């Protein structure tokens, strides 16, 4: 679990408070789940609940992406070996 203690933010357009919440929710998701899909589902559900719909989340070890998102609602970070992409659109 120690590998998941430090988040490295790669790209962000989000308030500091929301950034910290994203990292905290991701850490909680990793502590509760093993499968990447389940981690992403947990993060999305928490952000839909806390910050209103419609959030999208991708969690995996290796992928590329290019997304359109609502301003101030995007973060991409590493948590251990996992990449987390979280954004609001729609």
TrEMBL record:
The keyword Cytoplasm applies. Gene3D superfamilies: Protein Inhibitor Of Neuronal Nitric Oxide Synthase. This is Dynein light chain. GO terms for biological process: microtubule-based process. It is found in: Cytoplasm, Cytoskeleton. The lineage of its organism: Eukaryota, Metazoa, Spiralia, Lophotrochozoa, Platyhelminthes. Belongs to the dynein light chain family. Its main location: cytoplasm. GO terms for cellular component: cytoplasmic dynein complex; microtubule. Keywords: Cytoplasm, Cytoskeleton, Dynein, Microtubule, Motor protein. Pfam families: Dynein_light (PF01221). SUPFAM superfamilies: DLC. It comes from Echinococcus granulosus. GO terms for molecular function: dynein intermediate chain binding. InterPro entries: DLC_sf, Dynein_light_chain_typ-1/2. CDD domains: DLC-like_DYNLL1_DYNLL2 (cd21452). The keyword Cytoplasm applies.
